[in-house]
Amino acid sequence: MARYGMALDYKNCINCKACEVACKEENGVLLGADKHRIWVGVKEIEGEFPLLSIASNTFMPSQCQHCDNAPCEEVCPTHATYYDENGVVRVDSDKCILCSYCMNACPYDARYVDDRTVTVDKCNFCSDTRLARGEVTTACQATCPTKVRIFGDLDDPNSEISQVLREREHFTLKTHLGTKPKLFYLI
Amino acid sequence: MDLQKIIPYRKLSLKELLVPENKFMALVAIVLTALFLIGVMIYLVHGHHAYGVTREHPWGLLIAMYIFFVVSSTGLCIVGSFGDVFGFKDYMAVSKRAIFGSIITILSGFAVIAFEIGHPVRMMIYNVISPGLTSAIWWMGTLYGIYLTFMVIEFVFLMRNDMKRAKIFGLIGLLVGLAAHSNLGGVFGFLNARVVANGVFYPTYFILTAFITGIYLIFLMYGYKYRGQPFPEDVAKALTNFAKIQGLLLAILMFFETWKMLTGVYGGMPERADTIMHILHTKSFWLGEVLCGMVIPFLVILKSKGTAIKSMVWASFIGMIGIFYMRYDLVHDAQLFPMQTLKIREYQLPPSFVDYFPSLTEMMIGFGGIGLCLILYFLGTKLFDLDSMPEHH
Questions:
Q1: Is residue B350 part of a domain?
Q2: Complex-level ipTM beyond the 0.90 threshold
């Protein structure tokens, strides 16, 4: 089985939010649901007009980090949050009791309550849609015009993500917490 | 089946129930219970949208009130155990009432949490068939379920004056209760993401504050029962002893809190020190937790060396207000610091501490739970003889 991860060449991000739209469309996220599943963080321009540092204005896409050592999985009282065979952190909405413990335990604020199922939901790397259909991309990756996102199997040394992680420096978020995220930010 | 044979109770006339001797307390209990029911109805219509909780602050007043009730329950269990489990004669007089109190407070806690958990029925099913053994919530919930069972059995044997069996079930109930309660502390202690909550502090702090809460409540129960009259000798003796123990416990609590705050701010660790400094600038910490919860009751005990038990009743009332703030702050403080990785500079979300204030519905259900507790207590005092001293075997 694969061990899916994503590398983000975040400096290429132009904040067009095509990824957010594609994600919502693919996964049937409610219209108007802001920052559900994925979002683009905006670092505002530093300085006072007219002395603005244009280079300081960066965009950082983020989402569930699909941690190898996910705190949300550890704290779930009913195993509603689980690792699937591809190492993707998933939520079984039939088992979720909405105790919100996972929302509190997630250091990345990646989880939200889906108003239709009244359970916690999050990015699952399109496991219910694209991956289930046998495709090997996510909607956000496929739609990104500047190729910010590289999705693939971390265990396959020949996959594009494995190659790029070998070749380029990268970092993960809140590494000190020991959650071992599978979202890598390329420097 | 004759219920009388299982647990001795008084046969009541409807008049006795409908015409309580203290109309003020009856009114308070009815109004609070009515608010609870109204709150529940609003919740059933609007779901969590009726609450002030948000994605950034998913736990609110109802979690705090649940903790408030179960801390009370564990505390009363500890206080009650002095007499019937450990066999200290001086405390025997308060055992029945304390154990009964521990049952009704946890029931009230369960009533409140039932409307915070999104799917309580599903919880009972999947807690059994798909247990998350690494989850502190699973252990807390399961152990509290077992604890309640043992406390009920203990109470039945207490009412039958079967002290031998009451002792066995009481001891198991106490141990399971302590395990459950420290697990409730673990619910916060396990939150690696929340640096002010993470660690071993809360599991031990919960046991300590439970004991303190139990003593406050035993004072309130007897203070109410003997309002305007002198305490009987055996009760007065138990209460005086408890007041002295309370002095020690409060001193330990102040010591705990001091070190928590000092280790929190020391070194200026980002996030942790920021949050602790924020807490140290709030009135709810200084006036609620410190002044009401610890300092005033401590001074009352210190001044009279624990003998002013009438004053201690009022100090305990103030103490319970402090305990409420301790629970509320505990829940709120853990969620103060925003987790919005990479979003903190977004124009919609300025970098600041997360805001939360309970909605009216949350207040109705949360504080309404006190009404349920009062009604159950009233029924208990009518149905059961909570005062007769059990024969000592």
A1: no
A2: yes
